[in-house]
Write a structure and sequence with these properties.
It is built from three helices and five strands. The chain has one domain. The longest helix is centred in the C-terminal third of the chain and has 17 residues, at 61-77. It has a three-stranded antiparallel beta sheet, with helices on one face. The protein has a two-stranded antiparallel sheet with strand order 1-5. By secondary structure, the chain is α+β, with helices and mostly antiparallel strands. A hairpin with a 5-residue loop joins strand 3 and strand 4.
Protein backbone atom coordinates (compact mmCIF):
# COMPACT_ATOMS: atom_id res chain seq x y z
CA UNK A 1 0.00 0.00 0.00
CA UNK A 2 1.06 3.52 -0.75
CA UNK A 3 -0.30 6.78 0.49
CA UNK A 4 -2.04 8.63 -2.34
CA UNK A 5 0.01 11.54 -3.72
CA UNK A 6 -2.73 14.10 -3.16
CA UNK A 7 -3.10 13.49 0.59
CA UNK A 8 -2.49 16.32 2.99
CA UNK A 9 -1.90 15.39 6.64
CA UNK A 10 -2.33 17.49 9.76
CA UNK A 11 -1.17 15.80 12.96
CA UNK A 12 -2.95 16.72 16.19
CA UNK A 13 -2.61 15.76 19.86
CA UNK A 14 -5.35 13.17 19.39
CA UNK A 15 -4.21 11.72 16.06
CA UNK A 16 -4.41 13.28 12.61
CA UNK A 17 -6.70 14.50 9.86
CA UNK A 18 -6.08 13.26 6.34
CA UNK A 19 -7.50 14.97 3.27
CA UNK A 20 -7.37 13.90 -0.33
CA UNK A 21 -6.98 17.23 -2.13
CA UNK A 22 -8.18 15.72 -5.42
CA UNK A 23 -11.54 14.39 -4.26
CA UNK A 24 -12.04 16.30 -0.99
CA UNK A 25 -12.34 13.14 1.13
CA UNK A 26 -11.41 13.78 4.75
CA UNK A 27 -10.65 11.18 7.38
CA UNK A 28 -9.96 11.85 11.09
CA UNK A 29 -7.82 9.20 12.76
CA UNK A 30 -6.82 8.48 16.36
CA UNK A 31 -3.29 8.13 17.76
CA UNK A 32 -2.91 4.52 16.65
CA UNK A 33 -4.14 5.41 13.16
CA UNK A 34 -1.72 8.34 13.02
CA UNK A 35 1.08 5.99 14.04
CA UNK A 36 0.13 3.57 11.25
CA UNK A 37 -0.11 6.47 8.77
CA UNK A 38 3.41 7.67 9.67
CA UNK A 39 4.79 4.18 9.06
CA UNK A 40 2.95 3.97 5.73
CA UNK A 41 4.38 7.29 4.58
CA UNK A 42 7.86 5.97 5.36
CA UNK A 43 7.30 2.88 3.20
CA UNK A 44 6.92 0.27 5.95
CA UNK A 45 5.31 -3.03 5.02
CA UNK A 46 2.13 -4.27 6.70
CA UNK A 47 4.15 -6.80 8.71
CA UNK A 48 6.59 -4.14 9.89
CA UNK A 49 3.71 -1.89 10.94
CA UNK A 50 1.98 -4.71 12.83
CA UNK A 51 5.20 -5.48 14.73
CA UNK A 52 5.84 -1.84 15.62
CA UNK A 53 2.26 -1.02 16.66
CA UNK A 54 1.96 -4.25 18.66
CA UNK A 55 5.16 -3.46 20.56
CA UNK A 56 4.42 0.24 21.10
CA UNK A 57 0.81 -0.14 22.25
CA UNK A 58 1.06 -3.56 23.92
CA UNK A 59 -1.63 -5.16 21.74
CA UNK A 60 -1.49 -8.72 20.39
CA UNK A 61 -0.20 -8.97 16.81
CA UNK A 62 -3.34 -10.72 15.58
CA UNK A 63 -5.57 -7.96 16.93
CA UNK A 64 -3.37 -5.25 15.42
CA UNK A 65 -3.44 -7.04 12.07
CA UNK A 66 -7.26 -7.33 12.04
CA UNK A 67 -7.77 -3.74 13.13
CA UNK A 68 -5.17 -2.44 10.68
CA UNK A 69 -6.78 -4.29 7.76
CA UNK A 70 -10.12 -2.63 8.57
CA UNK A 71 -8.41 0.76 8.94
CA UNK A 72 -6.60 0.38 5.60
CA UNK A 73 -9.86 -0.56 3.84
CA UNK A 74 -11.41 2.66 5.15
CA UNK A 75 -8.46 4.71 3.91
CA UNK A 76 -8.60 3.01 0.53
CA UNK A 77 -12.34 3.68 0.19
CA UNK A 78 -11.68 7.38 0.84
CA UNK A 79 -8.97 7.44 -1.86
CA UNK A 80 -6.20 8.01 0.68
CA UNK A 81 -4.30 4.83 -0.21
CA UNK A 82 -3.43 3.11 -3.44
CA UNK A 83 -2.22 -0.41 -4.11
CA UNK A 84 1.45 -1.09 -4.63
CA UNK A 85 2.25 -4.52 -5.98
CA UNK A 86 5.79 -4.77 -4.58
CA UNK A 87 4.96 -4.20 -0.86
CA UNK A 88 2.74 -6.30 1.40
Amino acid sequence: MNTARAVRTVFTQGGAVLQNTENGATFAINLVGANIWRHLTKGATKNEIVERVSAEFGVEREQVFRDMEEFLRGLEQKGLLQEQASKT
